[in-house]
Amino acid sequence: MKFEQIRTQAMMLPEVTEEPHFDYSSFRVRGKIFITSPPDQKHVHLFVGEQDRELTLTLHPDFAEKVMWGTRVIGLRVALAKAKPAVVHQLIRKAWQNRAPKRLVASTGVS
Predict the structure, then answer these.
(1) Sign of CA dihedral 104, 16, 47, 84
(2) Statement: the pTM of the whole predicted model exceeds 0.90
(3) What separation, in Å, do the N-terminal and C-terminal C-alpha atoms of the chain show?
(4) CA gap 36, 41 in Å, rounded
(5) Exposed / middle / buried, residue 9 (Cβ in 10 Å: 0-12, 13-18, 19+)
């Protein structure tokens, strides 16, 4: 996958903005970050819920690993060169749902 595919998919979701986050790119819904990418754009960090994260780590260890914040797991790091586009597309939607206000999720029908 290419980072441009991530950008396209993220920006199609309701109320998403792309903003810098230090030297990273970030995608946000109402100010809450749900995806970041380092400057090399070879990986993305997706902030999905624990259940989606653990399932992805189990099913796709070839391209997904934990993102840590100290001793806490906060998301998934996905290697774009190895990633399966259909899986990443679903993870983008799950990350958006995880950070979007529940009312927005309900009103848009994004699943």
Answers:
(1) positive
(2) yes
(3) 22
(4) 9
(5) buried
